Amino acid sequence: MNAADRVWAGLSLVRERNPLVLNVTNNVVTNSTANALLALGASPAMTHAAADAAELALLADALVLNIGTPAQDYVESMFAAGASAKAKGIPVVLDPVAAGATAYRRDLARRIMDEVPLAVIRGNASEILFLAGESARSKGADSTQGSDEALAGAWDLAKRLSCAVCVSGAVDYVTDGSRTLAVGNGSALMTKVTGLGCTATALVAAFAAVNPDYLSAAAQAMAVMGLAGELAAEGAPGPGTLQVRFLDALYALDRERIAAQVRLEEL
């Protein structure tokens, strides 16, 4: 089975099983994340209440922890959901938004890595470099470094935590500390829409819910994300149009389009 066939098989499995993905995410992206999961074929659940999060995680097939707007109740919900996810054995995907920007975020990201078993971490180069303990430059939630600059750090982080690590950028790299996959799909216009990185994390969780090979699951999700972005950008005059078209492209992805345009390879 070639790379495109594996991506199609992964997407088909998400659509068939309709996994429930619990998101304890930031308040900027809640709506767009939920809609993207629905368009993909998964089922979203969203909460910021700790008791609710603990129960919902026991019903879910995967959990997203996103530190983009880390209010105290959000943080409490993350650890409550994380404890339930650990007890149930479902995959947890971390999005360490602007992890190195403030002392509060730095401490929170470290605590999550220490206390919650992670299946996948997805972030930009600056975020991944910080988590790996290396020098990183960022501008708020945006990275000033290329994804290739964080590849070695991602490799070390994946080995240390025994998880898959995805570095988003012009090329998305996914590694488990042994193998590395590269995804070449995407559009520069996607960087002009807030929250599409967070959306990618949610899609990774949906694929991880149906595929215990988290390296492959993350790479397939990023390929689907990038390809939908490419299709949405075709003829789009700006980011507002892309944002609407992205959901349509995600919903309409088929085997033929994936076979023709997916760019996924092992390094």
Sequence stretches where pLDDT stays below 50 over 5 or more residues? 136-143
Which strand order do you get reading across the main beta sheet? 2-1-3-4-5-8-9-10-11
Percent of residues in helices: 40-55%
Question: Structural class from helices and strands?
Answer: alpha/beta
Shape: globular
Note the total helix count.
Answer: 11
What is the number of beta strands? 11
Average predicted local confidence, pLDDT:
94
Rg calculated over all Cα atoms: 17 Å
Largest sheet: 9 strands, mixed
Cα separation of the termini: 17 Å
N-to-C series of helices and strands: HEHEHEHEHEHEEHEEEHHHHE
Tell me the β content.
15-25%
A few lines on this structure:
The chain is α/β, with parallel strands linked by helices and 267 residues long. It is built from eleven helices and eleven strands. The longest helix has 20 residues, at 214-233.
